Amino acid sequence: MLNYLIRRLLLLPITLFCIILVNFIIINLAPGDPVTVTEISPEGNVSRSEDQSVAFGSDDRYLQFREHYGLTLPVLFNRWPSMSDEEIKERLWGVIHQKESPTSTEEIPFKAWDQMRINLGDRSRFVMPKFLAIMENPDTPEDIRRMASRFFVRGGTRQAYLGSNLDDEKKAYNRKIAKENNLLKTLVISKFDTQDQANHKVEELRKWYEENSEYYGFDPTGWKKASVFFFDTRFYKYLSRVFTLDFGTLRNDNNKTVVSEVSKRFKYSLTLSILPMLFTFVFCQGIGFTMAIKQNRWQDLSLNVTCLIFYAIPIFVVAPFLIEKVALNGSFPFSDVPIPISGFTSPDAKYDQMVSHERLFDIMQHVFLPLIAILYGGLAAQSRLSRTAVLEVMRQDYVRTAKAKGVPTFKILYKHIGRNAAITIVTAVAGSLGIVLGGSLIVETLFEIDGYGKFFYDSIVNRDYNVIMFSALAGSCLTLIGYLIADIAYTLLDPRVTLE
Questions:
Q1: pLDDT tens digits along 198-225
Q2: What is the distance between the alpha carbons of residues 179 and 190, in angstroms, rounded to a whole number?
Q3: Could you tell me the CA-to-CA distances from 493 to 223, 280, 332, 395, 416 in Å, in that order?
């Protein structure tokens, strides 16, 4: 068994890496960015600015957000430094005229044009020498030259380190780039500049470039090019943080980490996932045994029909029904205690005044209906699965042999049938371990429980990449651990199964 466990544990990080890779590619190749900024004219028409915002985007916060999350980098491999001068000129011309080529008669749709300028802005810092060469070429048209200066400044602009606990090195870096960013903005060539003024700005840009080229790595050579190809990518930046267990912050609040927000909701998701899982495993065995032993009798038929009905009714029908018909104006059986219809606990002002056993009772009251809403469907499905597994084991030769030897019925059911039939249920339960963090979105929403299911749904709507990736990684890890636990459980349930 030890060799098997070592092999599985060695395969675990490889499997997780592949899962991260696939999910990362899918998320990053999905159309659009987490934030879409569009300029709207007073008349309601989409407009574009003619100043440096063409290169920077309409909002500095938008650029800062994309820089912070690495969205200005390619996904897997960085081939941007290999862009040719002609390709850059064509893109600059397309951004200026909003057309594919000089022979085109129709303008590019605004969405495609917007994506074109954003992509060129992202590539700017990797082709700084080529922008500079375009500006210094006397044959370059003035409009191309002006636009090249904007994208040159875009490539040279850096984002500051954020936070209150910065070390001296980061503070010095912030002071340096603040000074340089202000300088670069004054060197953007304007259409109102004379030829001499434009040439002077180009000379100043050349001077700044030569002073900072090595510091910022604007012109990599040799192994540095290979380093850019592999390491200046979104995937590497994210993976390097994951290796240090840094899963990032929330998109809307840099002061809140993903792990801390998940931890706050963990008790809700754990309760709404583990308890139904345990109840299902225990009760489905009893119901499955009853249906199998009473096969084709009224007990089996009635339970089968009941399970089919429960399985067919969706949770978004059952949950409102429980709230409206059971909880409202209702109370728990044999008591006058009203049934709560929202929240995981009573309001904090009341809950904080309770002692331990009162808090436990309060939580049990609040999760009573949510657990029923989550439990009924899984219990119905697992009970039918348990019935099938029990019937299959009951037909085995060793069961008939045990009966012929006069082994007590209870011992046959427990030792021979129950343990072997449980293997099927263990497999099903182990595969669902990955949803522990997920809870139930519908139940959490209808019962106003701030669990992880609702949190994950909101992150998808808001395109919060850090939360989505953490969910995929944590869910996959729990699923793999669940299957490993299931394999070990097989050896305990059936001595014939070995892991050698």
A1: 899 989 999 998 888 888 888 877 788 8
A2: 21
A3: 56, 18, 39, 18, 10
Q: Could you tell me if 221 and 280 lie in one domain?
A: no
The DSSP secondary-structure symbol of 252 reads T
Same-domain pairing of 312 and 407: yes
Host domain of residue 373? 258-493
Question: Whole-number mean pLDDT of the chain?
Answer: 81
Residue whose pair of structure tokens reads 């800062």 in the numeric block: 64
450 and 306 fall within a common domain: yes
User: Cβ neighbours of residue 346 under 8 Å, at least 6 residues apart?
Assistant: 340, 354, 362, 366
**376 within 8 A of 443, measured Cβ to Cβ:** no
- What is the pTM assigned to this prediction? 0.73
Whether the per-residue pLDDT at 469 is higher than 80: the answer is yes
Distance CA 371, CA 467 (A): 26
Confidence of residue 49 (pLDDT cuts 50, 70, 90): very low
Q: Write out the DSSP string of 191-238.
A: TTS-HHHHHHHHHHHHHHHHHHHHHHTSS--THHHHHHHHHSSHHHHH
Position 149 pLDDT exceeds 80: yes
The number of domains in the chain is 2
Q: What is the pLDDT of residues 250-284, one digit of tens each?
A: 877 777 888 888 888 877 877 887 788 888 888 88
CATH number of 348's domain:
1.10.3720.10
212 shares a domain with 190: yes
Find all residues with CB under 8 Å of 469, minimum gap 6, and list them.
20, 23, 24, 27, 238, 247
Across residues 348-365, what is the average pLDDT? 85
DSSP state of 106: S
Q: Do 236 and 268 fall into the same domain?
A: no
Is residue 33 in a domain? no
Give every CB contact of residue 424 below 8 A, 6+ residues apart in sequence.
385, 386, 388, 389
Residues sharing a CB contact under 8 Å with residue 256, sequence separation 6 or more, in sequence order: 249, 250
Start-to-end CA distance of the chain, whole Å, equals: 6
Q: DSSP per residue over 333-359, as a string? A: TTS-PBPP-S-SSS-HHHHTTS-HHHH
- Going 96 to 100 to 106 to 112, the CA torsion angle's sign is negative
Domain annotation covers residue 472: yes
Let me know whether 196 and 267 are in one domain.
Answer: no
Tell me, yes or no, whether 66 lies in a domain: yes
Q: How many helices (H) and strands (E) does the chain have?
A: 22, 2
Same domain (yes/no): 57, 147: yes
Residue 230 and residue 265 share a domain = no
Residues 6+ apart with CB under 8 A from 478: 433, 434, 436, 437
Contacts of 292 (CB under 8 A, 6+ apart): 300, 386, 387, 390, 391, 394
324 part of a folded domain: yes
Arithmetic mean of pLDDT, 425-430: 74
